[in-house]
Design goal:
8 helices, 160 residues, two-stranded antiparallel ribbon, mainly alpha
Length: 160
């Protein structure tokens, strides 16, 4: 991938470290999983990127992003670039959230974004259908947490 794209990713990782105290460690599986979710959710807060995600067992996943974050770490890429992202709002949403929350949130946003017409019929938002759909995909996650995630995302106006 382009060096510019990797520099933008590096800047985003630096902002996560600054605002979430997320010191990305490439050797830590949970860190790689969290970064996948942070980048995915970051798009809803203005982080413009072209990573393509597909739904997998642990929620949305981008193999291209995985390749890039390995390059960023192993090639010691630095970035003074500026990126557009409302990092304060993103941090307010995701700070101190665990992996189950991040998986649920990114899965729910992926479902909603891919099937808005299914969830928005005649100006009536079918939140129960979205919660049920997320729960069916994330069966290992308690429905109570999924409902909490929905509430959190709704409070941040992510269902527009």
């Amino acid at each position: 991938m382009s060096q510019k794209k990797k520099k933008r990713l590096k800047k985003f990782i630096d902002l996560l470290n600054e605002y979430l105290d997320f010191n990305f460690n490439i050797d830590n599986f949970n860190h790689r999983l969290k970064l996948q979710k942070y980048v995915f959710i970051g798009k809803f807060f203005g982080f413009k990127h072209s990573y393509v995600y597909n739904l997998y067992i642990r929620g949305p996943y981008s193999s291209e992003l995985a390749n890039d974050y390995y390059d960023v770490c192993y090639d010691k890429i630095n970035s003074n670039d500026q990126i557009e992202v409302n990092i304060v709002s993103l941090a307010a949403l995701v700070k101190n959230k665990d992996i189950d929350w991040l998986e649920s949130a990114s899965t729910m946003l992926s479902l909603y974004n891919s099937h808005k017409e299914l969830y928005n019929k005649k100006n009536n938002f079918d939140h129960e259908r979205l919660i049920t759909g997320t729960s069916q995909i994330k069966q290992k996650i308690d429905i109570t947490l999924i409902k909490t995630v929905f509430s959190d995302l709704k409070d941040h106006n992510l269902f527009n």
